[in-house]
Automatic annotation (TrEMBL):
Organism: Fructilactobacillus cliffordii
Protein name: Proline--tRNA ligase
EC number assigned by the record: 6.1.1.15
Annotated ranges, domain Aminoacyl-transfer RNA synthetases class-II family profile: 33-465
InterPro entries recorded: aa-tRNA-synt_IIb, aa-tRNA-synth_II, aa-tRNA-synth_II/BPL/LPL, Anticodon-bd, Anticodon-bd_dom_sf, Pro-tRNA-ligase_IIa, Pro-tRNA-synth_IIa_bac-type, Pro-tRNA-Synthase_IIa_type1
Gene Ontology CC: cytosol
Length: 568
């Protein structure tokens, strides 16, 4: 392929507003171009990379027994209204109407669509299990799209949906999908971790997230420094080690604390450490009031809390809502004198506390001498805290450490979350109606470009793994005006292409320095430079990843490239 015939608008300087390394380099190297905030055109080089990623994905999915298909990107809003996600998904939904005023959405994901298709076409357990997948554009109206392809409003995604008649088949497909995803990421050349993930708005039970460690990652990976344990911060837990106090229990005493509201103010007023304070937060879970108690030095984990409550929505109550529901101002909320409809959940670390400080649920007042097991013996406990670095790993092996990561894939056991509400039933082997059991499996295809770039780019540009590089070899005659260089470039390109290599030849009438800089930006794994020794049949071969160079005769070039390619 002649470089002069391709659209590769390289840039010398970093584009304004591009913060992430991957965003800067993909723009500078002429792979993508912004069309509007959060939407990008994939230019020829990026499209070639995407095609190779898709081939790897399709091969692994097909090998696992999944079957490819395609559904519309425009979804009837009724599907999501029936499942309950139309309201709970939030403002990220792109909503539209046709000329007949019928409501639609642009698909951010397709659980409902696939469930409706199966509902109308599969009636017996004999037709299951099935695992169907597609690779398609998805749409989410991000409030603040950023980092290029890492958080955009339109993106390419693999989404796969399995349908089973029993849990055993779901478990088997879930296992197969984990293996397929690992094979995909290994072949692409990513460093990644499989971690415990949060199902979020998808619903369901078990889930595993695949995360690529990167400084720009918006997810926090929590892992043990001495075991295989790893989880998203939203789902991470630690070994609960209660600290026993031998202090004598003091009586519960009401104290006037008129201007004391924050934890810092409470600790200063009572002259205590934050771990002697119980923090009370009022939430609305599916619009029902819930008070969450954590130790003052710990932070409530809303993802865990949603799981404990089985809630679709969870919001921290505003001061006005607190005043309306509890007749109290924030800072004095507490677990006392509550209506029957107000549920109280305390973190495990609250239970062993002795003589703690806690809000009295009266404006301007706190209790001291709070002993939970004595004063609230029926209190409900659960792990609803956010772990900290240095906590003991939940398996008891090692301490928890944090690192940043990019979510690149996620697998879920959805169970009957969608089939029940949408009425997707089958007849089982006993002739009884039962909801289909589902799983969901997704990979951010376009996001993989950024994930690879974040991990492997350097200050000079992109560095592509051989499996997904847009070309295998970049042939550069330093001066195309010299006949011997131009002829040798044509000879080498033809020979390499006949041998099965994909070759980009820089036939532009540019200075050698410009060509070399653009070559580093583009990031093709191997560069062949045709220069002063062209008349001797000698060229220079450079490995982009290491910068290593070697001279070789043209007759030995293919073997040299094959040897070097194995070492990359």
């Amino acid at each position: 392929m002649k470089q002069s015939r391709m659209l590769i608008p390289t840039q010398k300087q970093d584009p304004t507003g591009a913060e992430a390394l991957s965003h800067r380099m993909l723009l500078r190297a002429g792979y993508i171009q912004q069309v509007s905030a959060g939407t990008y055109a994939y230019l020829p080089l990026a499209y070639r990379v995407l095609e190779k990623i898709e081939r790897i994905i399709k091969r692994a999915m097909d090998d696992s027994g999944a079957c490819e298909m395609l559904v519309p990107e425009i979804i009837p809003a009724q599907f999501w209204q029936d499942s309950g996600r139309y309201d709970t998904y939030g403002d990220e939904l792109f909503k539209l109407k046709n000329r007949h005023d019928t409501e639609f959405i642009l698909g951010p994901t397709h659980e409902e669509t696939f469930t409706e298709l199966i509902k109308s076409s599969v009636k017996s357990y004999k037709k299951l299990p099935l695992n169907l997948y597609q690779i398609q554009s998805k749409f989410r109206d991000e409030d603040r799209p950023r980092y290029g392809l890492l958080r955009s409003r339109e993106f390419l995604m693999l989404d796969s949906y399995s349908f089973s008649a029993n849990e055993a088949d779901l478990d088997q497909i879930y296992k197969e999908m984990r293996g397929a995803f690992e094979a995909i990421f290994n072949q692409i050349g990513l460093s990644y971790r499989g971690i415990i993930g949060d199902s979020g708005s998808m619903g369901g039970s078990d889930s595993m997230e695949f995360s690529a460690p990167a400084a720009v990652g918006e997810d926090t990976i929590v892992y043990s420094n001495d075991s295989e344990y790893a989880a998203n911060l939203e789902m991470a837990t630690n070994m609960f080690v209660p600290q026993k106090s031998h202090a004598e229990a003091q009586p519960l005493e009401l104290v006037d604390t008129s201007d004391v509201k924050t934890i810092d103010q409470v600790t200063e007023f009572f002259d205590v450490h934050p771990d002697q304070v119980v923090k009370s937060l009022l939430y609305l879970a599916d619009e029902q009031p819930v008070i969450v108690l954590t130790r003052g030095d710990q932070v409530a984990n809303e993802a865990k809390l949603k799981h404990v409550l089985g809630a679709d929505t969870l919001e921290l109550a505003t001061p006005a809502q607190a005043a309306e529901l509890l007749d109290v101002q924030p800072g004095a909320v507490g677990p006392f004198d509550l209506s029957a409809e107000t549920r109280v959940i305390a973190d495990e670390y609250v239970q062993p506390m002795v003589n703690a400080i806690v809000g009295a649920n009266q404006t301007g007042k706190h209790y001291q001498g709070f002993n939970p097991t004595r004063d609230l013996p029926d209190l409900e406990y659960a792990d609803v805290r956010t772990v900290k670095e240095g906590d003991i790993s939940p398996d008891g092996s090692g301490e928890l450490q944090f690192t940043k990561g990019i979510e690149i894939g996620h697998i879920f056991k959805l169970g009957t979350r969608y089939s029940k509400v949408l009425g997707a039933d089958i007849l089982d082997e006993n002739g009884r109606q039962q909801p289909i059991i589902m799983g969901c499996y997704g990979i951010g295809v376009s996001r993989l470009l950024s994930a690879v770039a974040e991990q492997q780019a350097d200050e000079n540009g992109l560095v592509w793994p051989t499996a997904i590089a847009p070309f295998d070899v970049h042939v550069i005659p330093t001066n195309v005006k010299k006949e011997e260089q131009a002829e040798l470039a044509t000879q080498i390109t033809t020979s390499l292409e006949e041998a099965g290599f994909e070759v980009l030849v820089d036939d532009r009438k540019e200075r050698a320095g410009v060509k070399f800089a653009d070559s580093d930006l583009i990031g093709v794994p191997i560069r062949v430079t045709i220069g002063k020794k062209a008349d001797e049949g000698i060229v220079e071969v450079k490995i982009r990843k290491t910068g290593e160079t070697v001279e070789t005769k043209v007759d030995d070039l293919q073997n040299t490239i094959k040897i070097l390619a194995k070492e990359i």
